[in-house]
Design goal:
The chain has 251 residues and is of the alpha/beta class. It has 7 helices and 10 strands. Bound molecules: S-adenosyl-L-homocysteine. Pathway: Cofactor biosynthesis; adenosylcobalamin biosynthesis.
Length: 251
């Protein structure tokens, strides 16, 4: 059996209870060493074989996992955050499907949730934005033209950008070309939930300089939008004059 497990954003106690149990039981662990906190590996039992996938190809990862699974071992493929977000798990699952090898997926706390926690922020404020766009700048992995930052920015929604902290000048240009004012609040969250987490609040126009001044070029999320500002409406759910299935309106 192969278990794809989301390790969470960084902090070693932000893995799920299920993910932690799977790690404790694993005979083989293949972890994404570039981003997964190695402290998670302390949960593994003695004799567990551990591989860092950072220097491995898909084929090499499969060559480790498949024979182990066929030999009846429990294999944990440990991904950062939640495996469904830029996790490259589909290509692994397709190989396993083709070979008839059983697997399951244990979700994790994505770093975009860790970043909101670090910012003490709510992405979906009434009257500000009710939509969160998770995206990235095109890098060596292209982004379909219809999803260019410029086009996504035209919605004025909350945006969380992965894999983009090395191109903040271009990112700001695109956000502004899409319709955001240069003074729109923005934040850089570096290593959300890790012990060395850092949070920088700025504006879209200030993103590049802020990153430069603080030596940030990777392992960061960029968040953009009015949710980082001070103006919003109260929720209807907790409004005394608003009745719903669980509560009557007060006079
Ligand atoms: N599956 C992961 C994302 C993997 S893509 C998740 O759900 O979070 C890798 C990118 O995620 C990094 O380039 C960075 O932009 C972001 N990232 C991952 N962990 C992070 C963290 N702890 N803090 C800030 N950004 C993080």
């Amino acid at each position: 059996m192969i278990q794809f497990v989301g390790a969470g954003p960084g902090a070693e106690d932000l893995i799920t209870v299920r993910g932690a149990k799977l790690l404790e039981q694993a005979d083989v662990v293949v972890y994404a060493g570039s981003l997964v906190n190695p402290a998670h590996l302390a949960r593994t039992k003695q004799g567990c074989q551990i591989y860092d996938s950072a220097s491995m190809t898909l084929e090499q990862v499969m060559d480790v996992m498949i024979p182990a699974a066929q030999a009846g071992k429990l294999v944990v493929r440990l991904h950062t955050g939640d495996p469904s977000i830029y996790g490259a798990i589909r290509e692994q699952m397709d190989v396993l499907d083709a070979q008839g090898i059983a697997y399951d997926v244990c979700p994790g706390v994505s770093s975009f949730c860790g970043a909101a926690a670090a910012l003490h922020a709510e992405y979906t404020l009434p009257d500000v934005s009710q939509t969160v766009i998770l995206s990235r700048m095109a890098g060596r992995t292209p982004v379909p033209e219809r999803e260019s930052i410029r086009k996504l920015a035209s919605h004025g929604s909350t945006m969380v950008l992965f894999l983009s902290s090395g191109m903040l000048g271009k990112l700001a240009e695109e956000l502004i070309a899409g319709g955001y004012a240069p003074e729109t609040p923005a934040a850089i969250v570096y290593k959300a939930t890790w012990p060395d987490q850092r949070v920088f609040r700025t504006t879209i126009a200030g993103l590049e300089q802020t990153a430069k001044d603080n030596g940030i070029s990777k392992t960061a999320l960029i968040t953009v939008g009015g949710f980082l500002g001070d103006t919003y409406e109260r929720s209807k759910l907790y409004d005394p004059s608003f009745a719903h299935g669980c509560r009557e309106a007060s006079k």
